Amino acid sequence: MAKIIVVTSGKGGVGKTTTAASFATGLAMRGNKTIVIDFDVGLRNLDLIMGCERRVVFDFINVIQGEANLKQAMIRDKRVENLYILAASQTRDKDALALEGVERTLNKLAEDFDYIVCDSPAGIETGAIMAMYFADEALVVTNPEVSSVRDSDRVLGMLSSKTKRAKEGADPVKEHLVVTRYAANRVGKGEMLSLSDINDILGIPLLGVIPESETVLNASNSGMPVALENNADAGHAYLDMVARFLGENRPMRFTEAKKGFLDRLMGR
Amino acid sequence: MGWLDVFRSEKKGSAQHAKERLQLVVAHRRSGHDDQPAYFPQLQQDLLAVLRKYVQVGDDAVQMEIEREGDLEVLELNITLPDSKH
Ligand SMILES: Nc1ncnc2c1ncn2[C@@H]1O[C@H](COP(=O)(O)OP(=O)(O)OP(=O)(O)O)[C@@H](O)[C@H]1O
Ligand SMILES: [Mg+2]
């Protein structure tokens, strides 16, 4: 029986798709059969980040509407064994997703996957609710910045009221904080919220910290989840995060500013 | 204080301000009252103060509720007076 994990944030552009791609990749690298699904209907991007945009023939909506079966629509990753992608539709409007169809598809996938990772669209409307509705766990992606933190809080409110688990009074969705685009040097200067600030405000356990890094842009340019890049700090941070998710104890990295020459000179 | 300390002395960064503001909005949302008008708590305090000119009441004597129906908004006020012992 698969575990369903939604990657969500409320605010747009904070790194959900980047996180969903690398998290799913990391889970598969550790031998778990994993599928990552793009719920961003009309604005699909996961296929580009995963580098399989030219292999998309059928998408999630085609499956839901019975125009293709899952086998036809799932794209098997060529680099990592056990990793599959289900693209969103480019052309349909977002009302094409219906709860009942999503449930049917997820149930089918749950029969032979270990993890189903749902990449949520931004916002707090239907699309985002659809992506989180069946989730067992949630990665709440947050940037160290006021509007992102506030939106994460609103998303936490939705997780505890708008999901299937909430509606049925089951155990609540397990929430994990993922702080991305973390610029430790700016935090050090008191210009940006720190990890402990965000933790204090949101009050959910921290699963990972991903540094602000140009390796993310480079990786996306070449259609490579950053977790697959050997020399990328952000990639290492994602792999650490996956290890923690699987129960390993790994200290947080990339949380301290790199010291410059002047800093060392002045002993700070 | 050595001359280097001039460079080292830190201004209180804007992050601290951000944190304080966020803690307020988050507490407000989590209280479940985030669909109320922002003036509600103050109005409640003012009403209590007026009441207390005449009767002794507890902090929870004034209950307020806003009801919305279409574009009509109704403010419902419930004031609980202490048992009168004449
Ligand atoms: N750790 C990082 N360091 C630097 N840039 C990053 C990092 N994470 C994400 N980005 C950049 O931020 C942008 C948005 O990332 P991404 O598409 O993953 O966000 P999103 O939350 O999925 O956006 P949307 O809400 O539009 O779906 C991209 O240009 C990406 O390269
Ligand atoms: Mg996205």
TrEMBL record, chain A:
What binding partners and quaternary form does the record give? Interacts with MinC and FtsZ.
Query: What range(s) does the CobQ/CobB/MinD/ParA nucleotide binding domain occupy?
Result: 5-226
The protein's matches in InterPro entries, at most eight in alphabetical order, are given as: CobQ/CobB/MinD/ParA_Nub-bd_dom (IPR002586), MinD (IPR010223), MinD_FleN (IPR025501), P-loop_NTPase (IPR027417), ParA/MinD_ATPase (IPR050625)
Q: Which organism is it from?
A: Salinisphaera orenii MK-B5
Cited Pfam families: CbiA
Q: Which GO terms fall under biological process for this protein?
A: division septum assembly; negative regulation of cell division
| Superkingdom of the organism of origin | Bacteria
Which of UniProt's keywords are assigned here? Answer: ATP-binding, Cell cycle, Cell division, Nucleotide-binding, Septation
Q: What is this protein called?
A: Septum site-determining protein MinD
- Record has Flavoprotein as a keyword: no
Q: Where does ATP bind?
A: K11, G12, G13, V14, G15, K16, T17, T18
Q: Which family does it belong to?
A: Belongs to the ParA family. MinD subfamily.
For this UniProt entry, the molecular function terms from Gene Ontology, in alphabetical order, are: ATP binding; ATP hydrolysis activity
Q: What function does the entry list?
A: ATPase required for the correct placement of the division site. Cell division inhibitors MinC and MinD act in concert to form an inhibitor capable of blocking formation of the polar Z ring septums. Rapidly oscillates between the poles of the cell to destabilize FtsZ filaments that have formed before they mature into polar Z rings.
GO cellular component, alphabetical, reads: cytoplasmic side of plasma membrane; cytosol
TrEMBL record, chain B:
* InterPro entries, sorted: MinE, MinE_sf
Choose any GO biological process term that the UniProt entry carries and state it: regulation of division septum assembly
Keywords in alphabetical order, please.
Cell cycle, Cell division
Q: Does the keyword Cell cycle apply?
A: yes
The transmembrane segments are: none
Pfam annotation, one family: MinE
Q: Does the keyword Lyase apply?
A: no
Annotated GO molecular function terms are: identical protein binding
**Function according to Swiss-Prot or TrEMBL:** Prevents the cell division inhibition by proteins MinC and MinD at internal division sites while permitting inhibition at polar sites. This ensures cell division at the proper site by restricting the formation of a division septum at the midpoint of the long axis of the cell.
* Similarity comment text for this entry: Belongs to the MinE family.
Q: What is this protein called?
A: Cell division topological specificity factor
**Organism listed in the record:** Salinisphaera orenii MK-B5
